[in-house]
Write a structure and sequence with these properties.
Largest sheet: 4 strands, antiparallel
Shape: globular
Strand order of the largest sheet: 1-2-3-4
Structural class: alpha+beta
Strand content: 15-25%
Helix content: 25-40%
Number of domains: 3
Number of strands: 14
Bound molecules: zinc ion
Radius of gyration: 24 Å
Number of helices: 13
Order of helices and strands: EHHEEEHEEHHHEHHEEEHHHEEEHEH
Oligomer: single chain
Length: 357
């Protein structure tokens, strides 16, 4: 008999110790039908299968699986906007991030109506800001995520899917001291808010540096926010995050490396160039193909100086893209997108390839 007690999971523990996260940490459970997961006060999980058989496992790998999954990096096209760009600034450090599936997803996810609607926001964001001076980032989040209370009476399957998300990738704007106090009085917030806002990170020289914590209006982030102190009790050094923040950070890194490379060329046009393009599949479950053309003779090189990058005759998919960009930039090739929004091909030599888009 053991005198260790297992208690009901609190909200944070219910998020962490899910059956999916147990299977992510311990893949051998995928074939056993798990019925329930509970936790003992010695940091051990009790896993019960459908036959009532119990197993004990260390909780830590499940916590790590939860953190990894929450902050996973989606592929390049997952949040690329229909103009082939990244985030679009709205106001006060808040940005719109588009769901990429309507233009770049599987055939059965693609939807030109929603893509056109997204384009209206991408191209009209400046105007929207001027016309709606009192609209807050949370209002935009409600419209894009379709979370308005007007939708709550509509059954979920008939609700429009979300167009995108609103993220503060560099943290919430600073609130004047007087207003902070007012908010504290109203909602009786504890000092936790301070922790959410500032994170200590290490800079290039490994010195601690304070950074404002990114913020996102997505359901995953908001759920973590609701029980942040429980999460911090459960996982040492826990910081809130989500896949949208991870994607923006990776995209920023990509743009940063590209502009450093261009700066190092001191305004001379690069000879080593890459033109990339994405060609969606017509198969309902097809991934689409990512194609990369390179030249050592500059962007306007004639056809004979362009080669397509290939490996073992297998086409590249959306999942290869981050890694391919990393390789191009490491070898000092400047990447360009081959799809131009004005319809003019980026160069004459490749116009055959890009003509269909
Ligand atoms: Zn998010």
């Amino acid at each position: 008999m053991t005198n260790l007690t297992s208690t009901r999971l609190n909200e944070a523990q219910q998020m962490i110790y899910t059956i999916s996260n147990v299977c992510r940490a311990y893949p051998e459970y995928e074939n056993r039908n798990i019925n329930s997961v509970s936790k003992r006060d010695d940091d051990t999980l009790i896993i019960t299968d459908e036959d009532g058989k119990t197993f004990t496992e260390d909780a830590k790998p499940v916590q790590q699986a939860f953190t990894r999954f929450t902050n996973r990096l989606p592929h390049f096209f997952k949040y690329l906007n229909p103009s082939y760009g990244g985030k679009v600034h709205f106001k006060e450090g808040a940005y719109m991030l588009c769901k990429g599936d309507y233009k770049f997803g599987y055939k059965n996810q693609r939807n030109t109506t929603l893509e056109q609607l997204q384009l209206k926001f991408v191209n009209g964001m400046k105007k929207l800001k001027e016309n709606q001076p009192y609209a807050r980032p949370s209002d935009l989040a409600m419209i894009l995520q379709r979370t308005s209370s007007d939708y709550s009476s509509v059954p979920e399957e008939f609700r429009q899917p979300p167009l995108g998300y609103v993220v503060y990738p560099y943290g919430l704007p600073e609130v004047p001291k007087e207003q902070q106090i007012e908010i504290q009085n109203l909602f009786d917030l504890e000092d936790d808010a301070e922790d959410i806002d500032i994170t200590e990170i290490k800079d290039k020289d490994n010195k601690p540096k304070k950074m404002r914590t990114p913020y996102c209006f997505c359901p995953s982030y908001q759920r973590q926010l609701r029980c942040v102190s429980q999460l911090k009790d459960e996982i040492e050094g826990y910081t809130i995050g989500c896949k949208h923040i991870s994607w923006i950070q990776k995209f920023d890194e990509f743009l940063g490396r590209k502009s450093t490379l261009e700066m190092n060329l001191e305004n001379k046009a690069s000879e080593k160039v890459v033109v990339w393009g994405f060609f969606p599949s017509d198969h309902p479950k097809g991934q689409g193909v990512f194609r990369v053309f390179y030249s050592n003779k500059g962007l306007h090189a004639p056809k004979k100086d362009w080669k397509e990058l290939r490996e073992n005759d297998k086409p590249y998919t959306v999942h290869d893209v981050w890694n391919l960009f990393h390789r191009m930039l490491s070898k000092e090739y400047v990447p360009y997108c081959g799809h131009q929004s004005n319809g003019t091909p980026i160069n004459q030599a490749l116009k055959e390839v890009f003509k269909c888009h």
